[in-house]
Amino acid sequence: MLRFGPSADLDTLGGLGMRANIYAWPDVNRCLIEQQLAARTYEGAGFAALSTNARGLATLEYLLFYSGTENACPAEHPINAMGTWAAIAPDELARRRAAYAHAAAVDVAAQARALNAAWEPAGFRAPLETAGAGSTLFTTQQVAFSAVAEASFHADTDLKDLRLAVPLGLPGATARPEALESQWADRGEQHLRNNVLGLRTLLVGCVAGNNQGFDDMLEAAGAAPLATEMRADLDAIDAAINALPGDSLSRALVTDRAAVQRVHDAVKALTDFLKNEFTVTLQVRSERVAGDND
């Protein structure tokens, strides 16, 4: 979720758009995946050239966890109109899914190695560490600092909006379970926890990094109460997720929508803070927060 450096979009400073090769959600096209099953394109050498919404972890999830035999393509699509899909026996479909899953897993591993290589030893990490001291990418430390801080704003668009507001049907009161992340493995709640863990690591640090984070920068700027507020907001999100009934976000959305709404509201409290007090105090320069104060 926290995209900066090579995983960030191409319009971001230092971004190479590498996230989509690993995890393109919410851009997942089940019909396109099923077209590959019908044509067995996953067996070819050009697998990495497939659209990212038919590769990556989201595609792998569908292949491993969906057990139905129908497809999501319209009736007029060639794989249906020409009987291609109907001709695939259930056992053969299972074999194809396994083979496709293997190809997808191999590709994800390769893409992950490529992302790691794009960071170090002489990748994105070098210009980041030399910001303002000869870096060809970051002319000042403030520009580099803002590029990293800006990653936290994905919690607003990706976590608050895509993972919570859209499934909740906000604004409004009609839930949309079909918009939830992890439709087939039903790991939406675990994904929320990991998103918040990553966000906490970025904002307040971790043991491996001597617990250095943006909260320390707020304190150094004379805004210790804001650092305390930020940590309290993170704790409130964790508490709201822990209060969800069971471990299935899809079931919680149906049986206790108010509990999911409380997670959304807790995330919103933090993202509002990040877009306002955090940005102003630390002079974060970002295009992602301009005019966005919902």
Highlighted features:
294 residues, mainly alpha, 55% helix
Structural class: mainly alpha
Q: In percent terms, what proportion of residues is strand?
A: under 5%
Terminal-residue CA separation: 20 Å
Overall strand count = 0
Question: Can you walk me through this structure?
Answer:
With 294 residues, this protein is mainly α. It is 55% helix and 0% strand. Helix 9 runs antiparallel to helix 11 and helix 11 packs antiparallel against helix 13. The longest helix is centred in the middle third of the chain and has 30 residues. The C terminus is likely disordered.
Helices, strands, pairings?
Layout: H1 19-22, H2 30-39, H3 56-65, H4 78-81, H5 90-119, H6 125-129, H7 141-149, H8 154-168, H9 188-204, H10 214-220, H11 224-242, H12 249-255, H13 257-282
Helix pairs in contact: 3-5, 8-13, 9-11, 10-11, 11-13, 12-13
Task: Describe what is shown at a glance.
The chain has 13 helices and no strands.
